[in-house]
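User: I'm preparing a small set of examples for a lab meeting where we compare how different chains pack in three dimensions. I only have the primary sequence for this one, and I'd like the structure in token form so I can line it up with the others. Please keep the answer compact; I'll paste it straight into my notes.
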Amino acid sequence: MKTSLFNKTSHSDHCLRVSPVFSMQQAISVWVRDPRIQKNDFWHAYIDYEICLQTDSVYFTKKISTVRRRYSEFVWLRQKLQANSLLMVQLPELPGKNPFFNLNNARQISERMKGLQDFLKQILQSPLLLSDSCLHLFLQSKLSVSKIKACAAGKTHYSVAQAVQRCGLRRFHSEDDLQKALKMCCDSDSDSSDPEPQMKDLEINKAASAASLDFMGSSQEETLSISSEST
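Assistant: Understood. Below is the structure token output for the 231-residue chain.
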């Protein structure tokens, strides 16, 4: 069950614009956006985020992609990249794990998204990390962490390249669609200095989302309020 936390066409979209990262004079642009509540069951929920990537770098065979990842998967990625690089690269830190992280707190969600995006922006500057199969599968495949590990180790019937190619653009069916979405993100950023209107929009959107999930019981909204993100 998916619950979108931000209106994708309003200024509360929270698509955080990143300046292009240049590798070998080629641009890699990455965005973390569109947080959504995903429910494991009635009592347990977590938030995942959409990662949008656009590049002309030779390191990537797929130039445009979108995938969804949760915070715990970012934690795994950092640990894996650090181990694979044999400590030759000091990886940037992720936003800290907050034991009081609340699925209804717009400010906490926004801060976490920015931290996740800054993390990706920095690791994409390293040629050593860009050669890591786990990073490519994380950014451009739908594989779970366990399947990423298996694929990167050559233990699957499909290759890394095949796993990446199987991942479609999902919402963005063409480069024009992606460019339109990114333009809206940039427009949103120009008006994002004050978080209060964004938080008000978030409350409105959450109320609408709760209403749409009414079939799960009258206590649905209360459940979302007391649930904290699982790792």
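A couple of notes for your slides: The chain has one domain: 2-190. The chain has nine helices and five strands.

User: Perfect, thanks.
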